[in-house]
Design a protein that fits this description.
Shape: globular
CATH topology of the largest domain: Aminoglycoside 3'-phosphotransferase, Chain: A, domain 2
Radius of gyration: 20 Å
Number of helices: 11
CATH class of the largest domain: Alpha Beta
Number of domains: 2
Bound molecules: 2-acetamido-2-deoxy-1-O-phosphono-alpha-D-glucopyranose, magnesium ion
Order of helices and strands: HEEEHEEEHHHHEEEEHHHHH
């Protein structure tokens, strides 16, 4: 038996599942995920929750149950598999594990997707926010201040003060790129203090193509996944993350910034898909501000990656020492061209 199988077998068994094979899924930067097959052939998603980030797995799981119920009839979300003891997750030797049914014939896109799928993705996450705002499930706020731009800027400042001289030096070029965009902090403060024109809505807060399942054969959109960060937020979060993850021609950790370019066609597809899916969720003021969503998220993500680099890579999974700096540089380099694109389009 492989090391992976023997480590996962007791976990699967606690969910009442006789494990036969397992494959690690490499996508997420936070949790560890495995596609498992049990005797009989049925498949499941087994996930070790990152409890450094999600300190209270119980409330994450309760939110999933509430969201699933609220979206019934709209999306065929996977089922949560309870433990043999009937719990929503398993506490196993300091680790938290959960299990979902595998959505049959599904795949989550990992590389670049077509503008048509980008439109579908944006429409789906727009509908997700609209449907949840209509159903109003009672949800826990799992990660307070998750997309609070001002707080992310404070975290970066604190990280600069605590960083080693060597890391701070290496971070300087990215810090100076970011300095040109501090007006976004004032803009954010205004939105945050103006709840009438800029209301909070229940949002997904991690919108990217790999968080949507499509049908392998028909290409049909099946459902959004990775719902852990679903909580109230300001208008920019979901559209912003989609712009951030789909408008650039290369992924967020591509190190050679000279290769990076923006794809206006995708920008357009995302704005249209999100407007079509979310209508009539947003106020006229929000609709006028939506072109800025990607800029805000790019700025925030650059700060988050850079803060993690300065803190010694304690948050995001990394596969080599400077990866968080590369990610931050990638995001920071795209900020100016994205602002230009957003201005010409709005
Ligand atoms: C994290 O693990 P993953 O890829 O679903 C992060 C997001 C970032 C993303 C950047 C809880 O999401 O906010 O946008 O990495 N999730 C959390 O790739 O911090
Ligand atoms: Mg996520």
């Amino acid at each position: 038996m492989s090391a992976l199988l023997s480590s996962l077998a007791p976990i699967a068994s606690a969910f009442g599942l006789p494990l036969q094979s397992a494959e690690a899924l490499g996508q997420g930067l936070i949790h560890h995920s495995y596609q498992i097959t049990v005797s009989g052939g049925e498949q499941f998603l087994l996930q070790q929750l990152n409890t450094q980030v999600f300190a209270q797995p119980q409330i994450v799981q309760e939110n999933f149950v509430a969201i699933r119920r609220a979206l019934q009839g709209h999306y065929a979300l996977p089922h949560l598999v309870p433990t043999g003891q009937g719990q929503l997750y398993l506490q196993h030797q300091q680790q938290a594990w959960r299990c979902f049914t595998w959505v049959p014939h599904s795949y989550a896109p990992t590389g670049s997707i077509s503008p048509e799928l980008a439109y579908d993705t944006a429409r789906c996450f727009g509908s997700y926010a609209r449907l949840l705002s209509q159903a109003m499930p009672s949800l826990h706020t799992v990660l307070p201040r998750f997309h609070h731009l001002g707080w992310r800027a404070q975290q970066l400042k604190a990280a600069c003060q605590q960083a080693t001289a060597q890391r701070l030096q290496a971070a300087r070029p990215v810090l100076s790129l970011l300095d040109a965009h501090t007006d976004l902090l004032r803009q954010y403060e205004y939105w945050q203090q103006s709840p009438q024109p800029f209301p909070l809505r229940i949002l997904h807060h991690d919108c990217k193509p790999s968080n949507i399942l499509f049908h392998q054969q028909t290409g049909q959109l099946l459902c959004p996944v990775d719902l852990d960060t679903t909580q109230p937020g300001l208008f920019f979060s979901d559209l912003g993350d989609m712009v951030r993850s789909m408008v650039p021609n290369l992924p967020e950790d591509h190190a050679a910034v000279a290769d990076l370019a923006l794809r206006p066609l995708y920008w357009q597809a995302l704005q249209e898909g999100y407007a079509d899916g979310s209508q009539p969720l947003w106020t006229p003021d929000v609709r006028a501000a939506l072109p800025l969503a990607g800029v805000v998220l790019l700025y925030m993500q650059a700060m988050r990656f850079l803060a993690d680099y300065l803190q010694g890579d304690v948050y995001y999974h990394t596969s080599y020492p400077g990866q968080n700096l590369d990610r931050a540089a990638n995001q920071a380099h795209l900020l100016r061209p994205l602002r230009q694109l957003a201005t010409t389009k709005s």
